[in-house]
Structure formats: structure tokens, C-alpha cells
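Hi Y.,

Following your request, here is the sequence exactly as I used it, all 459 residues.
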Amino acid sequence: MKRLVVVSNRVADPRKAAAGGLAVALGDALSDSGGLWFGWSGQMIEPERGTESRLQQQRAGNVTLATIDLTQADHDAYYLGYSNGVLWPVFHNRLDLADFDHGDINSYRRVNRLFAQHLATLLRPDDVIWIHDYHLIPLAAELRALGCEQRIGFFLHTPLPSAVVMAAIPQHEWLMRSLFAYDLIGLQTQTDLGHFAHYVRNEARAEQRENDVFTAFGRTVRAQAFPIGIDVDEFIRLGEGREAQTTYANMRDQFASKRLLVGVDRLDYSKGLPQRLRAFQRLLHDYPENRGRAVLIQVAAPSRESVSAYSDLRHELEGLSGAINGEFGELDWMPVRYINRSMARKRLPGLYRASSVALVTPLCDGMNLVAKEFVAAQDPANPGVLILSRFAGAAEQMTEALLVNPHDQLVVAEATQRALNMPLAERQARHASLLEGIRRDDVHAWRKQFLQTLESKDV
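Below is the corresponding structure, written out as C-alpha cells. Let me know if you'd prefer a different format.
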């Protein structure tokens, strides 16, 4: 078996349950192949110490975790500046929030070169390399420049914007040219794949053969949609745990006479949180029978609090929550429970199961796994209803959800009213179909399909 080498901005121990979805997805493949996971350590160092090139390695079972530190200046420019100050907002169609600082792109390139230099010393000739996300787009090109000829794949977890939006990035040609150093590019949706194809045909004059093979800049690359999933059985087991069961029981007892609506998101402008609260406010205005009965629990985990756009968003949500509660609240009923902190993952299945409706209404999202977790957590005999933004990547697969335009408060309010009053038979039928889909296209199928495609040398 060829060794799998995974590269991501941060490294996680795949043995730990809190490591997240990527570690769950890749843990078995890494362990079976005696794999290597490489990335940033999360630590910053002072440049004058001369230790910025130090490579650290540790074992996690049969997996090697290899990390490097970054200087504060490189972290600020590569991670905060270019990755999250340019690529994140542009890839989520927020050009108004992008800060196109040319100095940041130099650090972005320098850190990717630093990653390549350290990683190259660890590679074997027959390794299969899988690089993840927008932080590391040019990494394959840097590895090729060092003489690496291994099969290298890339997966973009965010959306890929249209060619017109992408072209707003200074040096966008260089960025997209870097993708042609890969053998396989994985995107979340067919929409993303269409954006890629349109860009490279029109901006790079790429030749396209078949549906997914493109030639430009003297290289040929395969690009396909590989929608990421969740580990359904693992999440169901999580729901059977003590923390989830306690959360469910507490929610059921505390809100016995209420109907719970739930939203769980990072505090990010791409998630459509102000629009969601305004749609809930519209629900209470237009359908007064929900007053005193419907409760929206909105969990918004803090994210990038030092960035002004995020602190502005937090203040806006606090103001909206207060305004809705002030307008409609009673002594025994507060319509919005706004929680600006993370919730332990072990408790989430209990919260989802206690909820009649999930509002997953991002303005733009690569996939959104909350939608899939909500479905996995439901009681098939009495399931809740998923309201899903048509602009979430998950909408391509989860067509049995109630699909909405999150910008349209009236439409979201109407869908919420429909969900709250949906007959049991319809809820059961929708849930059964959604559950079948997320089981079929789970995270393990995602990983196997990507790696099988990468290792097949059709291109």
C-alpha cells in the first residue's frame, strides 16, 4: 500500500474524537498506510532565534504528525492577511470585505515555499499526497519546483467563485495556474466545477477533453466534484452518549410546551445569521400563532474576533436578538436564545434531536455539514425538518430539505411556518430520503472516491 501524505494548514491527531471531520475521514487511510500528516504547529516563534526552519515530528499510533512553526509576521500575513483576508471573502462572494494587500501575497507564497521545503525532506518516491484547502493552493507548484513527481491531489473545502469574481483577485492568473501543478483537483459541488471550467477555458485558454480533464500551462489536470460527507454511524453513536442524552432530556423538559428551532454556526459573515434572525422576526410578525411557542436557539461560535467584520457581526446579532426579545418576549417566553460560544460536539446530537426545525441558511457555503448532522441526529419516527439555503453546497445533494433563498425573509418565514406544521408522514418521508443520501455519500465514500481517482493514472 502506498503511503498517504496529508497536508493541511493545521494538523490534528486522528485518534482524538475532538479532532474534527477531516481527521475522522482520513484517520483510517493514514493509519493503514503508516501515513504522514504535515502542517503548521499552531505556534509562533521569534525570527531572531533562527528556529523558523525547525521540523517537529511525533507519533500518533501508526501515523506521523509533522509540523513547523511560523513567525508572527508570516502568520499574520499568510493566514490572517491573504488566506482569510483575501481568499476567504472572495471565495464567499464578499469582495467588499477583501483586503487586497500585495505584501500579504508575498508572505502567502513564502510560507507555501517553506511548507514545501520541509515536506520534501520527508517524502518517499511512491507517496500519494493530498493537500487541503485555500491556504495551500500553490503548494504543489512549490513541490514540483523542488523535483517532486509524486501524485498530488488538492481539495478545496470552500466554494470556488465565478470567473468574474475570481478575476478581482490581484494575480489571480498565478493562483489558478498553480492549480495545474496538481494531478487532481477536488471541489465540493458541480457548481464549483462549472466555475473552474469557465475560468480556465476563458482566462487560461485551457483545452477541455471529456468532462473533467483540462490542459493549460503545459500540464493536464483532472477536476471533479467530490461532495464531502459526515460519518453517519459515528454521529449516531455520539447521540447515544451521556452528554447528548442529557442535553436532549434537558431541552425536552425545559421546552416541553415549546417548538424549538436551531441554528449552529461559526460566527462568520458567510452564514447569513442576521438574515436568519430577521426571517424569524418576520415569522413572529406574520404568523402570530407562533408567539409564546416558537424558540430559536442560535449557537454562534466565536471566530476571528480580532477582525473588525466579525466583531461588527457579533454586535449586530446581539442587537437583533435583543430587539426581537424586547418586541415579542414575555415573562415565561423569550423567542431567541443567542449563544456566542462553542458548544461541545458531544452535546450537539441532543440539541438537534430536541429541535423541530433546523435553520441552515448560509449566504454561501462550500458544503455545510451541520445540515447532515441534523438529519443523522433525528428520531426517524418523529423527525424534525431541515430548512436549507440553496447557496449551501449541501443543497445539490439534499433536495428533500426545504430549500430557500436566505436573502428573502418572507420565503424563509413561510418555509419555517410550513416546517412547523408539516404532517408526520411528510416529515418521515423527507427524513428517510435525506438519511439514505447522507449514508450513501458519507465521509468515507468521499475519501475513497478521491484517493481512487488520484491514484488512477488516467491523466
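The chain has two domains: 4-229+443-455, 232-440.

Thanks again,
Q.
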